From TrEMBL:
Family: Belongs to the OMP decarboxylase family. Type 2 subfamily.
Matching Gene3D superfamilies: Aldolase class I
Keyword Lyase: yes
UniProt entry tagged with the keyword Lyase: yes
Annotated source species: Naumannella halotolerans
Native organism taxonomy: Bacteria, Bacillati, Actinomycetota, Actinomycetes, Propionibacteriales
A GO molecular-function annotation: orotidine-5'-phosphate decarboxylase activity
Name of the molecule in the record: Orotidine-5'-phosphate decarboxylase
């Protein structure tokens, strides 16, 4: 890509507002929109969501697992959904949380982060829990191709805390070590690498003061957090937040007027983040 992820993200936020809408085609949501929970229902649900919201939303975050559930046909729907979001002028963060040792990460880099990759995404979520260094091929491929990465640090789910708030030998929390290790890459390669920090924790458990990348923040809506919580919990760093809302939007149903209204309402709220 001829621009960097951080440049595209900034431009998209200025044009459309600071909001990432998750494309999370849970079978129950597909059914509630009046479609069969089959591959063709999946395709109809996703296509309708993008047709209605594609020109409004800055960033979409398809959840890979909910497409992979349908096998190769579901992955084909995902590939087309990415292309449809891009054709509508929106950016795409693929939420696939990839993480493995370096030789395997090279395969994921070829799949997601190169000019010739089948998935023409803008950014990818990755897991650092085989060591941030195991993500090295991803950092390099993303920097070379103008793509971004979002590295899991402090996830929104309650099960994450025991691991992520454990202390390293140096006394930092594991989540903080991830923040610091990713920031080292940002200093060398540019602020293209962000973090996933859940909105659901009253105490974030990490210090983000020195972090220069963007913060992908899930947990708003169905998981209980509000945009006001994000503003309070992220304080000075709220302007680096890219809030994600998935099921709360899907639960509105397929009516285009209602769907657009729900997103406009969220866009009004996120203006408060600065
Ligand atoms: O810490 C994390 C990391 C990723 N997610 C993903 O975000 C969405 C949230 O969906 P909602 O319906 O808005 O709750 C989903 O795709 C998760 O896999 C997360 O929730 N927390």
């Amino acid at each position: 890509m001829s621009t960097t992820w951080s440049e595209r993200l900034q431009a998209a936020i200025e044009a459309r507002g600071r909001l990432c809408v998750g494309i999370d085609p849970h079978p129950s949501l597909i059914a509630s929109w009046g479609f069969e929970p089959t591959v063709s229902g999946l395709e109809n649900y996703v296509r309708h969501q993008i047709e209605v919201l594609g020109l409004t939303v800055a960033v979409f975050k398809p959840q890979s697992g909910l497409f992979e559930a349908y096998g190769a046909a579901g992955v084909a729907v995902l590939e087309r959904a990415v292309a449809d979001c891009k054709a509508a002028g929106a950016l795409v963060i693929l939420d696939a949380k990839r993480g493995d040792f370096q030789p395997t990460m090279q395969g994921y880099a070829r799949g997601y982060l190169m000019e010739e990759s089948p998935f023409q995404i803008d950014a990818l979520t990755v897991s650092p829990y085989l060591g941030v260094g195991s993500l090295h091929p991803m950092f390099i491929a993303a920097a070379e191709s103008g793509r971004g990465l979002y590295v899991l640090s402090r996830t929104s789910n309650p099960e994450g805390s025991a691991l992520q708030l454990a202390r390293t030998g140096e006394g930092a929390t594991v989540a903080q070590q991830v923040v610091d290790d990713v920031e080292v890459r940002n200093e060398v390669l540019g602020p293209e690498f962000g973090l996933v920090i859940g909105a659901t924790h009253e105490d974030l458990g990490v210090n983000l003061d020195e972090f220069t990348g963007s913060l992908l923040v899930p947990g708003i809506g169905a998981q209980g957090a509000t945009v006001a919580d994000v503003k309070r919990r992220f304080g000075d760093r709220a302007s680096a937040v890219l809030p994600n809302v998935s099921r709360q939007v899907g639960r509105v149903g397929p009516d285009p007027h209602a769907l657009k209204g729900a997103v406009e309402d969220l866009l009004d709220q996120v203006r408060e983040l600065g």
